[in-house]
Amino acid sequence: GLIGVGTRIDPTLTRADRLVGQVLGLKGQLPDVFAEMEISYYLLRRLLGVKTSDGGKQAKVQKLQRAEILMVNIGSTATGGKVVAVKGDLAKIALTTPVCTQEGEKIALSRRVDKHWRLIGWGQIRKGSKIE
Question: What is the pLDDT of residue 56?
Fold first, then answer.
């Protein structure tokens, strides 16, 4: 909400953290907007904060699968993403909401486990399909 004080933006647009994850800037000076991106990723060995059903060690993180829905965090932006293709440590993700970012940016990947989003790994944007 505080950004509404220092700009000419209507304060009703900035209240209750409505602009978290949004990028504001002059046209032509912002990074590209991506709807689909190719990433290199690394998965954690075990899920954090989740025990197996028999009460043993923490559950292992499964490999990414095609058509799986993930939550992708890029900076302070959180958006959904559908895995389109996986090959080795590279994956192509179609985002539910386009994101203004740049190639080389770090991302966090989360998977839905027992009705909660759990961190499963991280990655880096290699390239993507840009929206004009």
Answer: 66
For residues 39 and 122, what is the distance between their CA atoms, to the nearest angstrom?
A: 10
The Cα–Cα gap between 59 and 108 comes to 19
Which of left, alpha, beta for 114 (phi over 0: left; psi -120 to 50: alpha)?
A: left
Give the C-alpha separation, 74 to 100, whole Å. 9
Nearest to 43 by CA among 65, 61, 67, 70: 61
How far is Cα 95 from Cα 116, in angstroms, rounded to an integer? Answer: 20
Q: Looking at residue 4, what is its pLDDT?
A: 54
Instruction: Place 54 in a pLDDT band, splitting at 50, 70 and 90.
Output: low
Confidence label for 39 from pLDDT (cuts 50, 70 and 90): very high
Element (H, E) at 92: strand 90-100
Among all chains, which residue has been given the structure tokens 């290199």? Answer: 40
What is the C-alpha separation between 22 and 99, in angstroms, rounded?
Answer: 9
Tens digit of each residue's pLDDT (9 = 90 or more) over 84-117: 999 999 999 999 999 999 999 999 999 998 899 9
Burial level of 93, CB count in 10 A (0-12/13-18/19+)? buried
